[in-house]
Every structure is written in structure tokens, then in C-alpha cells.
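User: quick one, fold this
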Amino acid sequence: MSCSSNCRERQEGRCEEPIPRRSVDGEPKSLSENGSFTDAQLSIHENLLVNPKLLFIGSKIGEGAHGKVYEGRYGDRIVAIKVLNRGKTPEEGAALENRFAREVIMMSRVKHENLVKFIGACKDPFMVIVTELLTGMSLRKYLVSIRPKVLDLNVAIKYALDIARAMECLHANGIIHRDLKPDNLLLTANQKSAKLADFGLAREESVTEMMTAETGTYRWMAPELYSTVTLRQGEKKHYNNKVDVYSFGIVLWELLTNRMPFEGMSNLQAAYAAAFKQERPAVPEDISPDLAFIIQSCWVEDPNMRPSFSQIIRMLNTFLFTISPPPQSSQEPDSNEVATTSNGTMALSTARTKGKFAFLRQLFAAKRTRNSQ
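Assistant:
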């Protein structure tokens, strides 16, 4: 499945055709009746495999719950090598092998300038994923390194656009990332752009698919991922790609404030506050009302009221134009005001017929009508 017709990056030649979904023998046995992957049938196409004899592992540069990441070499190319754990029991090993296969398949399906480039994988003697090596640090480490300073506003918005474009391409391919957070966003060496990494929790979206709630990191997770009673591991929940939009709202808040979301709380306390008390990080008064509107629209409780990433990109580009207008431009940006009512609902009023957020009027009209009834 390629990017949809409205995927801007494909139209501009930046979102390339993905590798088709196939099992090793070429038969579509890895797909369920509704078109989603079935874990028991996941397999990696042989064209995605690299020769392990050409891999040379160097120093460790990162570590997660399911594996370690090393700087290394594949042939004459400097790369990042992710080595996944095998598991301590046969059952755990089988689950980790399916997780590995799913990550490889997802990474191979999409190519975009703001997604870390997939090079290949190997299954023996280790489960390994090879990607391009970004010599910059993660967005998390970079933000911590400049704290308490905040990012220049232009830089923050450009990072946000990089992230939104990567997510737009994933969603156009029917992929939910489910773990969007600064730790999984890597900066280029010159720190000019950001790329999304780590597809370990990515899943193909399907209307009928039930997915586990034990996904992502609690501070960035959408409330609908939690159970209605407790955060029980492995519980099944229905949700859609708007969980990524919620996470993006938290990340955008971080880009503008350079603070930890729900600071002073443990991960579980943050999850409880977001899911059961409808709490969100406080938006500082000095943040532009336009940006506050984008953030708050991303993390509203109702997933269906959150904007798509194509809408987010349009809003961010419009805002970027207002702070960095092109020279000798005869066009003036339209003005608008954003207000937040006492009960937390958002209202958008424009001073001109073609306000820069006018395309969102219909998106929130249904909710305003529902609230007034």
C-alpha cells in the first residue's frame, strides 16, 4: 500500500513507494481476512534480509526494553544496528520474533525523509535491524541539554512539521506508530531536522482489529489506551490512529516549553491524571493562541475531534508563515482569534471570511452543537 493521493510528500517525490506486503514464499498468507497482519503468520521477505557476515558491531549507543542499539558497519557503510532480545522462554521468544518481524515489515513499507531509513534485517544468529545512523542526539537528549532554555520558535515549529510529515505518511499507509515521544525522534548531525525511529510498537490499522493497551510510554499515551478500571497489562482496546495525534500534542507542548509533561508525577500518576481526571499539561500564557489551539485540538478527549496530520501540517505552515513571511510578499496573512471557554471546549472565531484556520470550522461544529444541546 502506497501513500494516499493526498500525501503531500509523495506528490513532491519525498514519500517513496513502499515494498509490497508479502510472506517469504510470495503468498499472501501473512494477511488476515480484513487485511491486517496476523502475528502467528508474520514472516520477513527474503529481499529484506542482509548478509550477517558483512555486519560489524561497534560501541553501544542506546538500549531499550527489548534490545540494544550499536553503531556499526554494513559493508563499507556506517549504520545503526538494533539487536533484539531472544527471550527467556519459548513463549516469550515467539512473541519477540513476531514483534521483530512486524517492525521490519512496517519499516520496509514506508520511506520518507523524516523517517529513519531502513536498510535491512537478519534473523540468525541474532535478530537484527539495520538502519541509517544519525549522528545527532535524540530530541529528548537535546532538549535536556539546553534546559532551562527553550527552542527558538522557528526551530520548534520546523521540528514539529518534520514529525507531522512523518506521521502523515505513516497514517497514509495505514500504520499507527503508538510510541511517539522525544526519545524516538532523532536529530540530524546539524540539528536541522528530526526523523522518527523505533517501529517496535507500530501496528497496521484495521477497523476490526483489537490491540493491546500496553503500548507506548504513559506520559505520551492517549487516554483511550487505558482500561476503564486499571492499567492492566495486555488488556484489549479498540482505538485508531488518533492516538498518535494525542501523542503529537504532548510532543508539540514539549517543543514549545522544554518541560517534562506531567512533571512531578510518576508515569502511572500521569496516566491516571490524563485518563480519569482529563488533566493535560498547562499551556503557558505566552504561547501563541494559534499554537495553543493546535495543541489543545490534538489532545481533546474525543479522538474523533482530533485533527488529522494533514490538517496539523496546514495549521503549522500557516503559523510559520505569520512569523517568517517570505520577502516582498504582497499577500497578508489572515488574522484570527482563538478562545477557550470555562468548561474546556474550544471556540474559533475569524476576523475574515478566509481565516487561516477556516478549514477547521466544520471539524468542531458537530462538537459545539452537541455541547449546546
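User: anything notable?
Assistant: The mean pLDDT is 77.
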